[in-house]
Amino acid sequence: MKLLEAQTLFHTDITACDIEVVEQHWNDGSQYLGYEKTPRKKSGFIRICDGLQAHYKTEIDSFTARPGDLIYTPEGCRYRVQFECFKKPVRVNAYVVNFRLKDNLGNLITLSDTLCTMARDEHHRLKNLIAELSSACHGIPESPLMKKTRFYELLLSVLSGQQEKDRDYYPIRKGIEKLKVEWNENKSIAHYAALCGVSESYFRRLFKRWSGVTPVTYRNQLRVSYAKTLLKSAQMTLNEIAEYTGFDDPFYFGRIFKSISGVSPGKYKKDNEY
Questions:
Q1: CATH 3.40.50.300 fits 2-164, yes or no
Q2: CATH number of the domain located at residue range(s) 170-272 in this protein
Q3: Which of 79, 84, 216, 245 has a C-alpha 20 to 30 A away from that of 38?
Q4: What is the pLDDT of residues 157-175, one digit of tens each?
């Protein structure tokens, strides 16, 4: 099973399968020991609702999940959980979303190697998305397309929160977001550092830790991604595409395109034209 962090997963071709939602109601003092005896058969998200606390104990750790917490439970993990209710009974006080993620080679993907708190749902966005996913899972007639659509919306929201809470993201987030918008402009990296009130060297260092690549490489990856779309569908010459995507020199565009995609722009266009 492959462990992929949020930033990597954003750029990975994944497929979700075996999706199901279980709406649970636990009474005060209830406990579940099933996964202590038999490892979890799927990965899952558990969203703790108002009036409930869940005390988790694994083989190596223990922690308490409170209302608004979204717990991630990887496939194969063992744990026990005891519930504490401190509010009048409600119909649902916990949602469980079971699923499997696979890459394009069929390898199983996990978001963490241990049971953990994945997100804080302070504004109930995740809870609302899970409720919509639950409706899609239990609809009659069943709609597999709607179920997957709702799940991907939930996963994207969870991963976006994971990505943006990264300690390296916040100090330079203004520069990152601006660079994403100005991907075809040749502004200096110093310009984006200045937007964040930090030095260029500090911006570059945090950017590399956040994305895994330099700011210039990241911008070139964006440019090549847009260029691929134009090569497949637009009636533009290679020189025009190079200029549109921010490259003053078409030969440099060709070198960057091939270094990132593995083929020249001309071959990519020939192989992928609609």
A1: no
A2: 1.10.10.60
A3: 84
A4: 888 766 555 567 778 989 9
